[in-house]
Records
---
Amino acid sequence: MKLLIMAGFLGSGKTTLLLQIAKRLSAASLKIAIIENEIGDIGIDGDYLNREELHVQELFGGCICCTLSTGLIETLEKIELHYQPDLVILEATGVARPGDILTNVNKYQPKVESIKILTLVDAFRFEMLMEVIEPLLTAQIEAAHTVVVNKIDQVQEKTLEHVTHSIECLNPEAKISTVSAEVGTNLNSFLDDLS
Amino acid sequence: MINNCNHIAPAVFADKEHLTFSSPISAIKLQARLDTFLDDLTKSLKRNGCLLIGHIKGLVSTRDKGHLMFSVTSFTTDAHFKGTMAGSLKQAELTINVIVYGVDNNTIQNLYREAFAASLKC
């Protein structure tokens, strides 16, 4: 099975985009499993995704890049044993460092064919968030294979240029896509690329 | 606050409530009450030292009338709703996660209880 790690700060639109990705790939007859990690003691996104008839495993009350790392490996093993998906999409908490998740998952490497990290960035809040939590955002962007700049319908062209330029400086190797997962802007071309 | 990930950690409050309305309420009215509740909560969080809203998100679900997801990510923008809920409701389940920076869990809990009592208590 392949693994797609979806990272990005709280409220950047991970669950909304994940739903679009899962629907697209399921329609292409791929077997998808989702792992939802939430830092709250009560999960919400898993319940929402279950309503969309997706196969979801939940891990709450901590972050898989540190406190719940063992739980993540056990969950991956369980999914492989009982469901055997083509792709596992792992939605990290908004405060997770995907590089640390990758280190933890690498312990499981023999059963995972490939691992990709996709980091979402909230175009509307990017500049403000960089002032408050720059180390976390930087770590999330630097670890990504693909950075998706989301909520582009909420910003001016100039702001979007500034955001994408900042991302290019932080991670020149990453592929950058600009979308609005909610409105659907550029979503088809992004999903075509991802497929 | 620094967590195991070695960065500033948010405070997290989660709650699940069963809402029972004394008389049936329309889905539109319920959304309006949720909107007021979220507006009150974010304003009081800011007044009490909250520096940053990470994410306030929740789900209101019913057995057969649909569901509403809500999300707040900023002090300056309105709550965002998605999903569909129709008809009039006697009962619903509310699940909410409040993840914010600059205030502690007890403060969130107290402010949440006040906002809940003002707008959603039945």
---
Amino acid sequence: MVSFTFDGNPLKAPAGCTVAAALLAGGVSTFRTTPVSGMPRAPYCMMGACFDCLVEIDGVPNRQSCLITVETGMQVRTQRGLRSLAAQDRETQHAK
Amino acid sequence: MPNDRFDIAIVGAGPAGMSAAIAASRHGASVVVLDEQRGPGGQIYRAITSAPARRRDMLGPDYAAGQPLAESFRACGARHITDAAVWQVTPEGAVHYLHQGATSTLQADRIVLCSGAMERPFPIPGWTLPGVLTAGAAQILLKSADVVPTEPVVLAGCGPLLYLLGWQYVRAGVPIRALVDTTSMQDYRRALPHLGGALAGWRYLKKGLALMRVLKRAGVPFHTGAQDLAAEGSDAVTALSFTVGGQQHRIATSTLLLHHGVVPNTQFTWSLRADHHWDDAQLCWQPDADAWGALSIPGISVAGDGLGIGGALAAALQGELSALGALHSLGRITMTERDRLAAPLQSELRRQLRIRPFLDALYRPKKANRVPADDVIVCRCEEVTAGAIRQFVELGCHGPNQAKAFGRCGMGPCQGRQCGLTVSELIADARGVSPAEVGYFRIRPPIKPISLGELAGPA
Amino acid sequence: MNTSDLIVIGGGLVGTALAYGAARGGAQVIVLDEGDDAFRASRGNFGLVWVQGKGFGMAPYARWTLRSATRWPELAAALAEETGIDVQLRQPGGFHFCFSEEEMHSRQERMQRICDDLGGEYCYEMLDHAALAAKLPGIGPDVAGASHTPMDGHVNPLKLLRALHTACQLRGVRLHGGHRTSRITRTAEGYEVEAGDQRFRAARVVLAAGLGNRELAAQVGLHAPVQPNRGQVLVSERVSKFLDHPTTYVRQTDEGTVQLGDSMEDVGLDDGTTADVLSTIARRGVRSFPALQSLRLVRAWGALRVMTPDGYPIYQESTQCPGAFVVTCHSGVTLAANHVFSIAPWIAGGDPPAGIQVFTGDRFLDPNQTFHHAH
């Protein structure tokens, strides 16, 4: 099993599964809120064709979680609206 | 810079791609196969090489049939580039792909596109709510991660894949609260003449009915002839409402699985500006192709569901035929040899495809679920509603590209995969013409997302 | 009814601006537009309302451009009021980046020459790297500096197109899409235009058909030797606001996407994209703002500019066929205000505006001149 976090909360998933599968199995409902209107979204197609499974992984925003294998220690976060330009932004925000 | 050159490049390692690679390698061509996944199989045979026996058994014999194919593929000698996202294919034979965080290019004399199919968009009210997924998505979760819903699910729509998923769920012990089928008696009446006397047809029908029997014996509640489907909820789906014979129903669920068919993935073929035609039986765009899958663009062919929906076995046959076509055009086999090898494949392909008119008629997706009411979101990425698009038509938009310019539908990251068909049909319906006259979005690379840094290359 | 006071051939940014302007003056207007798959330069542009650097050695063009930029707020306000659509006009001033001292030097020479030609109407400044970094945090170390003017701005070009279409519709302009014009004939009352399978009649006709003008112009005794010139553009995912000012090669739209351009290629009627040019554009973008490197592309496109041999517009009424006009330019966004407020009234029957006499198509008939299109 692989240990990782979602919005700071610890989750576990079998090695080799995608981040999206791991999050769904972990009971996560909202993966992102849209930049257009802020409505909540979660995976729809699971094959990289809908872009609704976007989350922030280890500081990098807008990653298609259905195409990425979950790894130990990954820090996954809800993708809230627009991404910011630099991945560092989140780290500086947390440091404050 | 092109750093590799091959006789044949195959995009996609599903049944078509694997078969094409096996056949092409057998005749001595240098072959490369690029696929997004780590293991071969495409979507239909997803994770087949890593599936434990228990899971293979649960998913059924049609899935298990992918294993010998995958094994032959692995042994055939073709180069297999995994975790590769192909973002552009050019008429000159360049394949640009993203691999391990960097762009690469390879060059091939012939390209076979085997990108398969995608779920048909299912724009009903609430389809964008968390907890609403496609049946295909549910199967991918099952195949790749053994992930199943823990709460009772509702399956809604029509088509063999929906019932197959239900059957797989029953075997996996997943509680199904309801199977809401949009198929009606009228659909059966329309479809039955297409069954013909073909043995394959009756065999298929028997298989389908057996599948249904398992579902019914497991106590899955069925609702048939369902209309007015809507997913309810605010932050996530909480119920599916629908009507049957005018009577309102509402079934509580936190997981709603939708499906009303798959359609060819035409992103590459449109980006190449190959000729396409609208197929009214399958209600989708199909690239124009000859008996070998060759497109109107020289040197490029398509095999598998990307040509038109035919299923995994047909895809494998088409893959092999496309390889023979490519081998002949490269001068590696003679025309006589090609035709001799092709004959049994073509005859088997005809047999496999004989069931299609029946299935296409029986499970023809309902218009209301393809051309929705004004307040339904059509473009998920940009949140453009059907009503907004109808307004653009009134403003003078004749086709999807003008509508895209006016309202951004189709401009999001999915590049029209989830809305393209709906937009074409919606505009056609508003104008009172066939989708053939309306056309499709102008699809352009990058077909898969690539970052500026990746595109810029090393500093 | 297929009769009107004015027929506008072409429903893009130029055509709809002219139609709108004419309708504002009370004219009955018909617009004839091609189908969904036409080349449509209008859909492929950067949205700049750009003044700096234009009209080098052609002062009338610099003045014409400046005039349009000055009147743009009026256009934006009129469209907002009439249609409710905010075309997101922002005129905060713009930057043209230079990547070497040599580029800085030649840019300054260019800007100064234009400034001198306009006799002081034109203000600009050259900024070195440090001064630029103070105004645009995040600018890359490779950027030697930039020319900056307060005159430059940008707009959402697709909202502009929709606003013009809507404004036209609200003012009773009849737009016929899917009607490609094939033939224009002179009649007693004016002109008859065959488009699609129909015929339309009006006293006056204006050719605003982009690349199509070349063939149509000859039918009314005009000369419009336009050629396609391809530009490729990259569009990124949406990102939180980091750039308010437009720059020649990078701008952030009101939706948050980042657009990067561009190229100038003579490839005929090919509006495709090529990996090598896209790569070059990406590289320049990342050099300009290194933080952009993590940004993902959502799409790329190519579009065909409508280019005259010297790159300057053609505004001409036919002497052979009075009442027939040709209008072409490759800056349909910047010049939109002039097209609505100055050109349209002339085409509808008023006096020609000042400053456009030099922009005839006939200038290209001079055998003693060679032409080179500036950007």
